[in-house]
Amino acid sequence: MKKIFLLSFFSLFTLPVFSQEKGLDQRIDEAFKPISDFFNELVFFSIGDNPFVIYLLVGSALFFTLYFGFPNIKYFLISINVVRGKYDDIEKENNKTDDGEVSHFQALATAVSGTVGNGNIAGVALAIALGGPGATFWMIICGLLGMSTKFVECTLGVYYRDVDKNGIVYGGPMYYLKKGLKERGFEILGKISAVIFAVCCIGGSFGGGNAAQSNTATLAIKQLIGLESTSAGAVIGLVMAIIVGLIIIGGIKRIASVTEKVVPFMAVLYILACIYIISINFSLIDDAISLIITEAFNPTAIGVGGVIGVLMVGFRRAAFSNEAGAGSASIAHSAVKTKYAASEGLVALLEPFIDTVVICTMTALVIIIFNFGGYFDYGGDGLGSIFIQGEAFEGPEITARAFAEYIPYSDVFLTTAIVLFAVSTMISWSYYGIQSWKFLFGRGKVADLAYKLTFLTFIIIGSAASMNSIWAFSDAMIFAMVFPNMIGLFFLFPIVKEQLKKYLNVINK
After folding, report:
1. Residue by residue, what is the 3-state secondary structure of 252-318?
2. Rounded to whole angstroms, how far apart are CA atoms 430 and 417?
3. Distance, CA of 455 to CA of 9 (rounded, Å)
4. How far is the C-alpha of 111 from the C-alpha of 178, rounded, in Å?
5. Which of 92, 130, 264, 436 has the smallest CB count inside 10 Å?
6. What is the pLDDT of residue 132?
7. CATH number, position 138
């Protein structure tokens, strides 16, 4: 029965792909848009003019920051030292064997690859273009606060993980919801929340971790080589699906071995390119920073509802980019080799800093400096497109135009960066999704195959559908994970404090 259900589920997504009544891209987009609209309306229910989930994320991050005494600042250097392996010998002295499959650095690289993706390129461009320069300020604030949330959820991920007889790790919010709430006497709530999270995480792996990435990569490739075929997106998606499929077959160890090489390499190259553009426009840096700060508190900020509107644009894009509060990263961090849960929680602190405070801010500065030339009006058409000298552009194309202004042949570099970021994000999210899938349907080979085929199909869907539909669905799936995850965090955060104290006592002896 389970096999029939899984294969039927897969068939729902494959049938529209092969229809040829219209252009393939158009057919896929028309089939996908109603799904996107439904989930977007369901998840982003509002209090006043703004989605409740944003208040939940920011309020929770602020609470954890205050409760743990600003861990994003206090333990920042310790976090770096844990990644460097400074305390590895101390850990081994106290525990001769460590459960887990990957090192601290590999776990961080895998998790960062799931967040450092095209949200940093396309998402930031959309935030700045639609919300104005002030959105950058609120993105940074959200990133700093999100460091505390990552610390809590990733500590819990390691603490409540399962390790089977072969040493394979299964972890994430599904497990700390189910086991942790049972310990607190809320077994039924824990089981229900765990199932809801797993379902949402699977949807998130298909959406933000997959379709949004392939969509952005496809737009960049089509722009670079001038493809206008009605089926070009689906063809590009098929090629990416084959590449991703070859990688994800090997599980977390192969994923980690790829991400620990690709992510640092591309992140450093991308940051260096941004630094170059910013440095040759050195005289404009103070103007850009001034504009970011003033527009963040401008009650007449462009087209998005004043200060609160700009704040929400910034928070929404930052939360999508770094995923703090969604719980997804704790799945990757759970696979780390350690006996001390808080050690990996401290490592996870670095994720939102790298993703949002550094890379997103770099992208934002480049776009703002570029637009001092008056190339486009902040606010766009209200539908996600910005007009640069009369021509409509979307997220990745805006960033590409900014790079092209200052770096020769930057279109090739940026397209390469976008594609590699997209692929690395997809392979990390395939791990998140399949862990959730295993939690629901078991750890057998048929279940694995059904998930992987469906995941690869969504790469093709994402490449063919419109950007508006993809980003709406992606936002909805990522943010839907927040609701069940927060139940676990607020029930279990005292355990994090105990684990932190335990680890600090060990490394400070």
Report:
1. HHHHHHHHHHHHHHHHHHHHHHHHHHHHHCHHHHHHHHHHHHHHHCCCCCCCCCHHHHHHHHHHHHH
2. 20
3. 12
4. 22
5. 92
6. 80
7. 1.20.1740
Query: Coil, strand, or helix at residue 43?
Result: helix
Region label for 486, one of left (φ > 0), alpha (ψ between -120 and 50) or beta (otherwise)? alpha
Q: Flag the least confident range among 186-190, 269-273, 392-396.
A: 392-396
Rounded Cα gap, residues 43 and 56, in angstroms:
12
- Cα dihedral across residues 489, 490, 493, 495: positive or negative: negative
Q: How far apart are CA 496 and CA 502, in angstroms?
A: 10
Q: What is the structure's pLDDT at 8?
A: 42
43, 48, 277, 279, 358 from 286: Cα distances, Å? 39, 35, 14, 12, 17
CB atoms within 10 A of CB 363: 28
Output 254 or 435, whichever has higher pLDDT.
Answer: 435
Please report how the helices 306-322 and 124-131 are oriented relative to each other, as an axis angle in degrees rounded to 10. Answer: 180
Task: Name the token pair of 48.
Answer: 């006043």
Element housing 163 (H / E): strand 162-163
The separation between CA 107 and the C-alpha centre of its own chain, rounded to angstroms, equals: 15
Is residue 19 classed exposed, middle or buried when 0-12, 13-18 and 19+ CB atoms within 10 A define those classes?
exposed
Q: What angle do CA 313, 404, 467 make, to 5 degrees?
A: 40
Q: What is the pLDDT of residue 495?
A: 94
Instruction: Residue 109: name the closest of 486, 436, 425, 422 by CA.
Output: 425
- Closest C-alpha among 90, 81, 135, 132 to residue 108: 81
8 A C-beta contact, residue 473 and residue 315? no
Instruction: Write the CA distances from 485 to 148, 196, 201, 336, integer angstroms.
Output: 15, 9, 10, 20
Of 92-101, 148-157, 490-499, the range with the lowest mean pLDDT is 92-101
Which tokens hold the place of 142?
A: 């959200």
Neighbouring C-beta atoms of residue 50, cutoff 10 Å: 17
Structural tokens at position 497: 């404090």
Number of folded domains that form the chain = 1
Q: Picking from 6-15, 32-41, 337-346, 416-425, which range would have the lowest pLDDT averaged per residue? A: 6-15
Q: Supply the range of the domain harboring residue 105.
A: 2-507
Is the Cβ–Cβ distance between 466 and 23 less than 8 Å?
Answer: no
pLDDT in the model for residue 107: 79
